[in-house]
Design goal:
- By secondary structure, the chain is an alpha+beta fold.
- The chain has a three-stranded antiparallel β-sheet with strand order 3-5-4. Strands 1-2 form a two-stranded antiparallel sheet.
- Strand 4 and strand 5 form a beta hairpin.
- Helix 1 packs across helix 4.
- The protein is elongated, with a radius of gyration of 20 Å.
- It starts with 9 loop residues before the first strand and ends with a helix.
Amino acid sequence: MARSGRDLGSTARAAHADRVVARPVGEPRNFLQCCLLLLLRERPAHGYELLERLKPFGIAEGDPGHLYRRLRSLERQGMLCSKWEASEAGPRRRTYHLTDRGEVLLGTWAGVLAETRALLDYYLVRHASVAAPAEAGGQGR
C-alpha cells in the first residue's frame, strides 16, 4: 500500500537482500482520525490543545493546517460539532465536541485497532522466533 508523506513519521533502516535501504515508518492510516475521536471523547477541545494532546501519540510533528483540515472534514461528516467560545487569553476559539456518530466511529476504530494489534503481535512473535537464532549465532541466510 502506498503511503502519503503526511502519514509518515520517521525513517527506519530495513535490510533488503545484501543492501540497506531507507524506508518510511509512521502511524497507521487514519490514526490521526482515531486519536482525535478519542481525545474529544475524553473532553471537548480547541485545535491548539489537540495539537498538544496528540504529542504522546507521535503525531505532534507536522503541519497544523492538516489537523484543522481533518477536524473540519470530521465535522462535515457529522462526527464532530464545533462552536466558537470566548478565550481568557486572546481571541475566541473554535471548540470541537464528539457527536453520537463520532462516538460510534470511535468504537469501530477501537475494534479495528485491536484486530490490527493482534495481527502485529502475531507477526512480531513469528519474526522473533526466526530473528533470534540468526542474531545469536551471527549467521545470515
